[in-house]
Design a protein that fits this description.
Layout lengths: L1 H15 L2 H11 L8 H20 L2 H15 L1 H28 L2 H8 L9 H15 L4 H13 L3 H15 L1 H12 L1 H43 L1
């Protein structure tokens, strides 16, 4: 048990350094009506990651894999044709956004920068956002998947699995909890940092809106072409 606990703590610390989840909370922290409402975001993150781990361990991945194989066998040609079409469409979308950005007048760019974020966000939205962000991260959470593989290989009782997953997920949300207390006692400094972060994030998101569709389109197009014709 102790080797698994040690492994869970180590992998959990690595997994907890998730820049997207942490930066999202940093922005949301300044938008909540009451400071403690950010716990809804943290709770949503914790619950979805914990349940996601249980689903992977107890075979839900096998159910989805079987369904995927059945659909692919029945509609192979249609799916990859749609994939190629979607890829081409995404590449054209990215190219159009790039053209639109380069041809935008200085006045329109100034107007875009003056967009004001909402003054507050509801607790329910925070809960859903925390859960959805974490579910989206689950397929790429390599440390978590490694730990889950160790639990499956160990063939331990369900009670031990629940305990170890609980330990891992508590470690996972530690940076979010620390960020909450940092904001609680250093609100002015954190608000100043978030203000600067928003400006940088706005510039990054402008280019991400262009690069991501093009990259995704190229991947889908090439993947679909290889599977359909090669």
């Amino acid at each position: 048990m102790w080797p698994l606990i040690t492994s869970g703590i180590g992998l959990g610390l690595i997994d907890s350094l998730n820049p997207f989840t942490i930066s999202a909370q940093a922005v949301l922290q300044a938008l909540v009506k009451k400071t403690h409402h950010i716990w809804y975001y943290i709770l949503g993150t914790f619950i979805s990651y914990f349940i996601g781990g249980l689903l992977v361990i107890y075979g839900m991945d096998k159910v989805f894999s079987a369904f995927y194989r059945h659909v692919m066998a029945a509609y192979n040609g249609i799916i990859f044709s749609v994939e190629i079409t979607a890829g081409i469409g995404l590449v054209f979308l990215g190219a159009f956004l790039l053209y639109k950005r380069k041809t935008a007048s200085p006045i329109s760019k100034t107007k875009e920068k003056k967009i004001v974020p909402p003054k507050s966000v509801a607790p329910v939205f925070l809960l859903i956002l925390g859960a959805s962000n974490t579910i989206g991260d689950l397929p790429t959470a390599i440390p978590y998947l490694i730990f889950i593989a160790q639990l499956v290989e160990a063939s331990i009782s369900m009670g031990s699995v629940l305990f170890l997953l609980l330990v891992y997920n508590v470690i996972y949300i530690l940076p979010l909890v620390l960020l909450f207390f940092l904001y609680l006692f250093n609100r002015d400094k954190v608000d100043n940092f978030i203000g600067k972060f928003r400006k940088k994030a706005a510039k990054i998101s402008e280019w991400a809106a262009i690069v991501v569709p093009i990259a995704a389109g190229l991947f889908l197009g090439i993947h679909g072409y290889i599977n359909l014709f090669l």
